[in-house]
Specification:
alpha/beta, Macrophage Migration Inhibitory Factor, two-stranded antiparallel ribbon, 3 helices
């Protein structure tokens, strides 16, 4: 599950393209298939979205929630791919992008009527 926050006037026009870039990075680095795209966009009013000084109104926050198991190197590769590809495809400077990866144990995930540690038919690898 990925949650993306930004100022609505900046985020809304690029949602589809940003979604594609994020998922391409998830596929390239983590091996996610196209049918595993799970993203939520939260366009915000300017007065509801405070961000650090030195950033523009293109400031975008990307929270990536995933099951534990990915190596530190893999997570860093994902973050770096996102910085590079978002800048190349959408001209958003890395200084205007904040990425956090939040990991939870498989038993803390629930989908398709079971917990993540009960699933045995994932089409992607968690331990990469």
């Amino acid at each position: 599950m990925i949650v993306i926050y930004g100022i609505k006037e900046k985020l809304n026009p690029i949602k589809a393209q940003l979604s594609d870039v994020i998922h391409q990075c998830m596929s390239k680095v983590l091996g996610m298939s196209e049918d595993k795209r799970a993203q939520r966009f939260i366009p915000m009013e300017c007065d509801d979205f405070y961000y650090p000084s030195g950033r523009s109104n293109a400031y975008t926050v990307i929270e990536i929630n995933m099951m534990t198991g990915r190596k530190v190197e893999t997570q860093k590769q994902l973050i770096n791919a996102l910085f590079i590809d978002i800048e190349r495809e959408l001209s958003i400077s890395p200084v205007d992008i904040e990425i956090t990866i939040k990991e939870q144990a498989p038993h803390q995930w629930g989908f398709r009527g079971m917990t993540g540690d009960e699933v045995n038919d994932l089409k992607y690898k968690v331990n990469v």
